[in-house]
Design brief:
alpha/beta, 12% strand, 411 residues, 43% helix, TIM Barrel, H-NS DNA Binding Protein, 8 strands, eight-stranded parallel beta barrel
Length: 411
Protein backbone atom coordinates (compact mmCIF):
# COMPACT_ATOMS: atom_id res chain seq x y z
CA UNK A 1 0.00 0.00 0.00
CA UNK A 2 1.30 3.46 -0.92
CA UNK A 3 2.35 5.62 2.02
CA UNK A 4 3.91 8.95 2.99
CA UNK A 5 7.55 9.44 4.01
CA UNK A 6 9.03 12.61 5.50
CA UNK A 7 12.30 13.69 3.91
CA UNK A 8 13.55 16.77 5.74
CA UNK A 9 15.72 19.34 3.95
CA UNK A 10 16.49 21.75 6.81
CA UNK A 11 20.22 21.02 6.59
CA UNK A 12 20.33 21.63 2.85
CA UNK A 13 17.61 23.94 1.59
CA UNK A 14 16.94 25.47 4.99
CA UNK A 15 20.53 26.60 5.48
CA UNK A 16 20.55 28.17 2.01
CA UNK A 17 18.24 30.86 3.36
CA UNK A 18 19.70 34.33 2.91
CA UNK A 19 21.26 35.97 5.99
CA UNK A 20 21.10 32.95 8.27
CA UNK A 21 23.15 29.82 8.79
CA UNK A 22 24.03 26.95 11.09
CA UNK A 23 27.34 25.81 12.51
CA UNK A 24 28.19 22.21 11.65
CA UNK A 25 27.61 21.17 15.27
CA UNK A 26 24.14 22.73 15.10
CA UNK A 27 23.42 20.87 11.86
CA UNK A 28 24.39 17.66 13.63
CA UNK A 29 22.04 18.36 16.54
CA UNK A 30 19.28 19.04 13.97
CA UNK A 31 19.97 15.57 12.56
CA UNK A 32 19.82 14.06 16.05
CA UNK A 33 16.41 15.64 16.60
CA UNK A 34 15.17 14.49 13.19
CA UNK A 35 16.22 10.94 14.00
CA UNK A 36 14.52 11.06 17.41
CA UNK A 37 11.37 12.38 15.77
CA UNK A 38 11.21 9.40 13.42
CA UNK A 39 11.93 11.23 10.15
CA UNK A 40 12.77 8.85 7.30
CA UNK A 41 15.63 10.80 5.76
CA UNK A 42 17.64 13.98 6.25
CA UNK A 43 19.11 15.80 3.29
CA UNK A 44 22.13 16.63 5.39
CA UNK A 45 24.29 18.67 3.06
CA UNK A 46 26.45 19.01 -0.03
CA UNK A 47 29.00 16.17 -0.33
CA UNK A 48 30.90 17.91 -3.16
CA UNK A 49 31.54 20.99 -0.99
CA UNK A 50 34.86 20.98 0.86
CA UNK A 51 33.74 22.82 4.00
CA UNK A 52 31.00 20.20 4.55
CA UNK A 53 33.33 17.19 4.24
CA UNK A 54 34.26 16.59 7.88
CA UNK A 55 30.72 17.25 9.10
CA UNK A 56 29.23 14.82 6.57
CA UNK A 57 31.76 12.07 7.24
CA UNK A 58 31.35 12.44 11.01
CA UNK A 59 27.57 12.21 10.72
CA UNK A 60 27.92 9.03 8.67
CA UNK A 61 30.13 7.69 11.47
CA UNK A 62 27.38 8.56 13.96
CA UNK A 63 24.94 6.64 11.80
CA UNK A 64 27.26 3.63 11.67
CA UNK A 65 27.57 3.47 15.47
CA UNK A 66 23.79 3.82 15.91
CA UNK A 67 23.64 7.40 17.18
CA UNK A 68 21.94 8.55 13.97
CA UNK A 69 19.98 5.44 13.14
CA UNK A 70 17.65 4.35 11.55
CA UNK A 71 17.28 7.69 9.72
CA UNK A 72 18.94 7.81 6.30
CA UNK A 73 21.45 10.54 5.49
CA UNK A 74 21.26 11.79 1.93
CA UNK A 75 23.39 14.33 0.10
CA UNK A 76 22.39 16.82 -2.59
CA UNK A 77 24.39 17.43 -5.75
CA UNK A 78 23.86 18.80 -9.21
CA UNK A 79 23.05 16.15 -11.79
CA UNK A 80 26.44 16.44 -13.43
CA UNK A 81 29.23 13.87 -13.44
CA UNK A 82 31.90 16.03 -11.78
CA UNK A 83 29.68 16.75 -8.76
CA UNK A 84 29.06 13.04 -8.27
CA UNK A 85 32.73 12.15 -8.71
CA UNK A 86 33.77 14.77 -6.15
CA UNK A 87 31.02 13.72 -3.75
CA UNK A 88 32.37 10.18 -3.51
CA UNK A 89 35.95 11.41 -3.36
CA UNK A 90 35.22 13.65 -0.37
CA UNK A 91 32.53 11.50 1.30
CA UNK A 92 33.33 7.94 0.17
CA UNK A 93 30.77 6.22 2.42
CA UNK A 94 27.77 8.24 1.27
CA UNK A 95 24.97 5.90 0.20
CA UNK A 96 22.05 8.15 -0.72
CA UNK A 97 22.02 11.05 -3.19
CA UNK A 98 19.52 13.43 -4.71
CA UNK A 99 20.69 14.77 -8.06
CA UNK A 100 19.16 18.02 -9.28
CA UNK A 101 18.85 19.73 -12.65
CA UNK A 102 16.52 22.35 -14.11
CA UNK A 103 13.79 21.11 -16.45
CA UNK A 104 11.57 24.09 -17.34
CA UNK A 105 12.10 25.92 -20.62
CA UNK A 106 12.33 29.26 -18.81
CA UNK A 107 15.27 27.94 -16.77
CA UNK A 108 16.89 26.20 -19.71
CA UNK A 109 16.92 29.56 -21.46
CA UNK A 110 17.51 31.75 -18.42
CA UNK A 111 20.18 29.62 -16.67
CA UNK A 112 21.88 27.53 -19.34
CA UNK A 113 21.70 30.09 -22.20
CA UNK A 114 21.49 27.37 -24.82
CA UNK A 115 24.34 25.25 -23.44
CA UNK A 116 21.83 22.50 -22.57
CA UNK A 117 18.60 21.69 -24.34
CA UNK A 118 15.95 19.24 -23.13
CA UNK A 119 17.85 16.24 -24.46
CA UNK A 120 21.08 17.53 -22.95
CA UNK A 121 19.40 17.80 -19.54
CA UNK A 122 18.31 14.17 -19.71
CA UNK A 123 21.76 13.08 -20.87
CA UNK A 124 23.49 14.89 -18.00
CA UNK A 125 21.04 13.49 -15.44
CA UNK A 126 21.37 9.94 -16.77
CA UNK A 127 25.17 10.05 -16.78
CA UNK A 128 25.30 11.44 -13.23
CA UNK A 129 22.88 8.77 -11.99
CA UNK A 130 24.87 5.98 -13.61
CA UNK A 131 28.10 7.27 -12.06
CA UNK A 132 26.51 7.53 -8.61
CA UNK A 133 25.50 3.87 -8.66
CA UNK A 134 28.86 2.83 -10.08
CA UNK A 135 30.64 4.59 -7.20
CA UNK A 136 28.53 2.95 -4.51
CA UNK A 137 25.21 4.74 -4.10
CA UNK A 138 22.37 2.60 -2.77
CA UNK A 139 19.59 5.01 -3.75
CA UNK A 140 19.42 7.97 -6.09
CA UNK A 141 16.54 10.39 -6.31
CA UNK A 142 16.36 12.70 -9.31
CA UNK A 143 15.16 16.29 -8.92
CA UNK A 144 13.29 18.18 -11.62
CA UNK A 145 13.99 21.76 -10.60
CA UNK A 146 11.09 24.04 -11.53
CA UNK A 147 8.90 21.02 -12.26
CA UNK A 148 5.78 23.10 -11.64
CA UNK A 149 6.65 25.24 -14.70
CA UNK A 150 7.84 22.32 -16.83
CA UNK A 151 5.60 21.05 -19.64
CA UNK A 152 3.97 17.82 -18.54
CA UNK A 153 5.00 15.79 -21.56
CA UNK A 154 8.67 16.58 -21.04
CA UNK A 155 8.47 16.10 -17.26
CA UNK A 156 7.14 12.57 -17.81
CA UNK A 157 9.86 11.86 -20.38
CA UNK A 158 12.51 13.13 -17.94
CA UNK A 159 11.15 11.00 -15.08
CA UNK A 160 10.97 7.87 -17.23
CA UNK A 161 14.59 8.35 -18.26
CA UNK A 162 15.57 8.73 -14.61
CA UNK A 163 13.74 5.51 -13.77
CA UNK A 164 15.49 3.66 -16.61
CA UNK A 165 18.81 4.60 -15.04
CA UNK A 166 17.80 3.39 -11.58
CA UNK A 167 16.36 6.48 -9.89
CA UNK A 168 14.09 5.45 -7.01
CA UNK A 169 11.86 8.53 -7.13
CA UNK A 170 11.36 11.80 -8.96
CA UNK A 171 11.41 15.05 -6.99
CA UNK A 172 8.70 17.42 -8.17
CA UNK A 173 10.13 20.83 -7.27
CA UNK A 174 7.71 23.73 -6.98
CA UNK A 175 10.80 25.90 -6.94
CA UNK A 176 9.04 29.25 -7.03
CA UNK A 177 6.00 28.21 -5.00
CA UNK A 178 3.89 28.80 -8.12
CA UNK A 179 1.56 25.82 -7.81
CA UNK A 180 -1.77 25.59 -6.03
CA UNK A 181 -3.19 22.50 -4.29
CA UNK A 182 -5.63 21.64 -7.08
CA UNK A 183 -3.07 21.95 -9.86
CA UNK A 184 -0.29 20.06 -8.10
CA UNK A 185 -2.63 17.22 -7.17
CA UNK A 186 -3.52 16.67 -10.83
CA UNK A 187 0.02 17.03 -12.16
CA UNK A 188 1.60 14.74 -9.60
CA UNK A 189 -1.12 12.13 -10.00
CA UNK A 190 -0.57 12.09 -13.76
CA UNK A 191 3.21 11.95 -13.30
CA UNK A 192 2.95 9.02 -10.87
CA UNK A 193 0.45 7.15 -13.04
CA UNK A 194 2.40 7.48 -16.28
CA UNK A 195 5.80 6.68 -14.78
CA UNK A 196 4.77 4.18 -12.03
CA UNK A 197 7.30 6.00 -9.90
CA UNK A 198 7.33 7.37 -6.34
CA UNK A 199 7.11 11.17 -6.26
CA UNK A 200 8.87 13.52 -3.87
CA UNK A 201 7.21 16.88 -3.17
CA UNK A 202 9.44 19.91 -2.72
CA UNK A 203 7.34 23.03 -2.27
CA UNK A 204 8.21 26.64 -1.49
CA UNK A 205 6.00 29.11 0.32
CA UNK A 206 6.06 32.15 -1.98
CA UNK A 207 2.26 32.15 -2.17
CA UNK A 208 1.75 30.84 1.36
CA UNK A 209 0.70 27.39 0.10
CA UNK A 210 3.79 25.22 0.60
CA UNK A 211 2.12 22.96 3.17
CA UNK A 212 -1.15 22.73 1.24
CA UNK A 213 0.66 21.97 -2.02
CA UNK A 214 2.93 19.40 -0.37
CA UNK A 215 0.00 17.53 1.12
CA UNK A 216 -2.15 17.77 -2.01
CA UNK A 217 0.72 16.60 -4.20
CA UNK A 218 1.37 13.68 -1.89
CA UNK A 219 -2.27 12.65 -2.10
CA UNK A 220 -1.99 12.79 -5.90
CA UNK A 221 0.88 10.29 -5.81
CA UNK A 222 -0.90 8.01 -3.34
CA UNK A 223 -4.13 8.09 -5.33
CA UNK A 224 -2.03 6.95 -8.29
CA UNK A 225 -0.78 4.00 -6.22
CA UNK A 226 2.73 5.37 -5.60
CA UNK A 227 4.59 6.35 -2.44
CA UNK A 228 4.91 10.04 -1.64
CA UNK A 229 7.94 11.71 -0.07
CA UNK A 230 7.30 15.15 1.41
CA UNK A 231 10.18 17.58 1.81
CA UNK A 232 9.91 19.65 4.99
CA UNK A 233 11.96 22.01 7.14
CA UNK A 234 11.72 22.67 10.85
CA UNK A 235 9.73 25.85 11.57
CA UNK A 236 9.28 26.33 7.81
CA UNK A 237 12.73 27.86 7.37
CA UNK A 238 13.94 28.11 3.78
CA UNK A 239 14.79 30.33 0.87
CA UNK A 240 12.69 33.47 0.40
CA UNK A 241 9.33 32.76 2.13
CA UNK A 242 10.45 29.31 3.28
CA UNK A 243 9.69 25.64 2.68
CA UNK A 244 6.87 23.45 3.93
CA UNK A 245 6.84 23.48 7.74
CA UNK A 246 7.30 19.96 9.06
CA UNK A 247 4.86 20.12 11.96
CA UNK A 248 2.14 21.70 9.81
CA UNK A 249 2.48 18.90 7.26
CA UNK A 250 2.33 16.22 9.96
CA UNK A 251 -0.71 17.72 11.66
CA UNK A 252 -2.47 18.17 8.31
CA UNK A 253 -1.93 14.48 7.53
CA UNK A 254 -3.33 13.49 10.90
CA UNK A 255 -6.14 15.95 11.54
CA UNK A 256 -7.41 17.61 8.35
CA UNK A 257 -11.01 16.73 7.53
CA UNK A 258 -10.40 14.77 4.35
CA UNK A 259 -7.30 12.90 5.52
CA UNK A 260 -7.79 12.02 9.17
CA UNK A 261 -9.37 8.66 8.33
CA UNK A 262 -6.71 7.66 5.78
CA UNK A 263 -3.92 6.92 8.31
CA UNK A 264 -1.31 8.81 6.31
CA UNK A 265 0.81 10.05 9.20
CA UNK A 266 4.03 7.99 9.06
CA UNK A 267 3.82 5.55 11.98
CA UNK A 268 7.44 6.22 12.96
CA UNK A 269 6.79 9.89 13.70
CA UNK A 270 6.93 11.02 17.34
CA UNK A 271 4.98 14.26 17.54
CA UNK A 272 5.97 14.80 21.17
CA UNK A 273 9.45 15.80 19.98
CA UNK A 274 8.05 18.77 18.03
CA UNK A 275 8.13 21.34 20.83
CA UNK A 276 11.76 20.89 22.01
CA UNK A 277 12.92 20.54 18.39
CA UNK A 278 11.24 23.78 17.34
CA UNK A 279 12.80 25.64 20.25
CA UNK A 280 16.29 24.33 19.52
CA UNK A 281 16.02 25.24 15.83
CA UNK A 282 14.81 28.72 16.72
CA UNK A 283 17.85 29.21 18.95
CA UNK A 284 20.30 27.74 16.44
CA UNK A 285 18.96 29.75 13.47
CA UNK A 286 18.42 32.89 15.60
CA UNK A 287 14.88 33.08 14.21
CA UNK A 288 12.12 33.58 16.82
CA UNK A 289 9.15 31.24 16.58
CA UNK A 290 6.20 33.26 15.25
CA UNK A 291 3.53 33.85 17.87
CA UNK A 292 0.98 32.22 15.57
CA UNK A 293 3.22 29.35 14.39
CA UNK A 294 1.27 26.12 13.98
CA UNK A 295 1.46 24.00 17.12
CA UNK A 296 4.51 25.63 18.70
CA UNK A 297 3.75 29.37 18.63
CA UNK A 298 2.95 31.14 21.90
CA UNK A 299 -0.64 31.68 20.79
CA UNK A 300 -1.23 28.20 19.34
CA UNK A 301 -3.18 27.23 22.47
CA UNK A 302 -3.91 30.68 23.93
CA UNK A 303 -7.47 31.93 24.43
CA UNK A 304 -8.51 35.42 25.54
CA UNK A 305 -11.92 36.36 24.15
CA UNK A 306 -14.76 35.42 26.45
CA UNK A 307 -16.53 33.02 24.12
CA UNK A 308 -13.33 31.16 23.22
CA UNK A 309 -11.98 30.98 26.76
CA UNK A 310 -15.30 29.74 28.10
CA UNK A 311 -15.60 27.14 25.34
CA UNK A 312 -12.03 25.88 25.74
CA UNK A 313 -12.45 25.53 29.51
CA UNK A 314 -15.66 23.55 29.08
CA UNK A 315 -14.22 21.22 26.47
CA UNK A 316 -10.90 21.78 24.71
CA UNK A 317 -12.32 20.40 21.46
CA UNK A 318 -14.54 23.46 21.18
CA UNK A 319 -11.53 25.54 20.12
CA UNK A 320 -8.52 23.21 19.94
CA UNK A 321 -8.18 20.72 17.09
CA UNK A 322 -5.41 18.71 18.77
CA UNK A 323 -3.79 18.54 22.21
CA UNK A 324 -0.72 20.54 23.21
CA UNK A 325 0.50 17.54 25.22
CA UNK A 326 0.74 15.57 21.98
CA UNK A 327 3.41 18.00 20.77
CA UNK A 328 5.53 17.76 23.90
CA UNK A 329 4.10 20.92 25.47
CA UNK A 330 2.51 21.42 28.87
CA UNK A 331 5.31 20.63 31.32
CA UNK A 332 6.62 23.53 33.46
CA UNK A 333 9.93 24.92 32.26
CA UNK A 334 12.42 25.83 34.99
CA UNK A 335 14.33 29.08 34.52
CA UNK A 336 17.44 29.72 36.60
CA UNK A 337 17.04 32.98 38.54
CA UNK A 338 20.00 32.75 40.91
CA UNK A 339 23.66 31.95 40.32
CA UNK A 340 24.34 30.62 36.83
CA UNK A 341 27.55 28.92 35.71
CA UNK A 342 27.86 28.59 31.94
CA UNK A 343 30.52 27.08 29.71
CA UNK A 344 32.27 29.05 26.99
CA UNK A 345 35.59 29.51 25.24
CA UNK A 346 37.26 30.87 28.40
CA UNK A 347 35.75 28.45 30.94
CA UNK A 348 37.83 26.76 33.60
CA UNK A 349 37.67 23.21 34.88
CA UNK A 350 35.73 23.99 38.08
CA UNK A 351 32.82 25.69 36.32
CA UNK A 352 32.92 23.12 33.55
CA UNK A 353 32.58 20.19 35.95
CA UNK A 354 29.76 21.99 37.75
CA UNK A 355 27.81 22.38 34.49
CA UNK A 356 28.34 18.78 33.41
CA UNK A 357 27.49 17.57 36.90
CA UNK A 358 24.12 19.27 36.58
CA UNK A 359 23.68 17.39 33.28
CA UNK A 360 24.47 14.13 35.14
CA UNK A 361 27.48 13.50 32.93
CA UNK A 362 30.46 11.90 34.65
CA UNK A 363 34.08 11.66 33.53
CA UNK A 364 36.35 8.75 34.39
CA UNK A 365 39.24 11.03 35.40
CA UNK A 366 40.55 14.60 35.31
CA UNK A 367 42.36 13.99 32.03
CA UNK A 368 39.12 13.08 30.26
CA UNK A 369 37.37 16.10 31.77
CA UNK A 370 40.17 18.36 30.54
CA UNK A 371 39.93 16.95 27.00
CA UNK A 372 36.16 17.50 26.87
CA UNK A 373 36.54 21.02 28.31
CA UNK A 374 38.92 21.90 25.49
CA UNK A 375 36.39 20.59 22.93
CA UNK A 376 33.61 22.56 24.59
CA UNK A 377 35.71 25.73 24.36
CA UNK A 378 36.16 25.12 20.65
CA UNK A 379 32.44 24.38 20.29
CA UNK A 380 31.65 27.77 21.78
CA UNK A 381 33.97 29.43 19.28
CA UNK A 382 32.39 27.29 16.56
CA UNK A 383 28.76 28.24 17.27
CA UNK A 384 29.41 31.74 18.66
CA UNK A 385 26.56 31.14 21.11
CA UNK A 386 26.27 29.64 24.60
CA UNK A 387 26.05 25.88 24.18
CA UNK A 388 22.70 24.25 24.79
CA UNK A 389 22.13 21.21 26.97
CA UNK A 390 21.87 19.02 23.85
CA UNK A 391 25.14 20.35 22.44
CA UNK A 392 27.03 19.89 25.72
CA UNK A 393 25.82 16.32 26.07
CA UNK A 394 26.70 15.56 22.44
CA UNK A 395 30.27 16.84 22.81
CA UNK A 396 30.70 14.84 26.00
CA UNK A 397 29.26 11.66 24.53
CA UNK A 398 30.80 11.75 21.04
CA UNK A 399 34.07 13.70 21.40
CA UNK A 400 35.80 12.22 18.33
CA UNK A 401 32.91 13.01 16.02
CA UNK A 402 32.50 16.45 17.62
CA UNK A 403 36.17 17.20 16.95
CA UNK A 404 35.79 16.22 13.31
CA UNK A 405 32.54 18.18 12.88
CA UNK A 406 34.18 21.37 14.16
CA UNK A 407 37.24 20.99 11.95
CA UNK A 408 37.16 22.92 8.68
CA UNK A 409 40.34 22.86 6.59
CA UNK A 410 40.42 24.94 3.38
CA UNK A 411 41.64 22.94 0.37
Amino acid sequence: MARVYILDVTNRDGVQTARIGLAKLEKTIINMYLNEMGVFQSEFGFPFTHHETNYLNANIELSEIGALSPMRLEGWARAIKRDVDLSFKLVPKIKHLNLSISTSRIMLEGKFFGKLDEEGVIKSMAEATDVAYKLGAETVGVNAEDASRTEMEYLIKFAKAAKEHGAKRIRYCDTLGADDPITIYGRVKELAQKTCMAVELHCHNDLGMAVACSVAGAIGAIDAGQDAYINTTINGVGERAGNADMLSVLLALKYSSGLRDRNLLPPEIKLNKAWPFAKYASYAFRIPIAVNQVGVGDNAFAHESGIHADGALKNRRNYELYDYEELGRGEPELVETGRMITVGEYSGIKGFRNVYGNLEVEFKDDAEAARILELVRYANVHTQKPLTREELIFVGKYPEQARKIMTVTPP
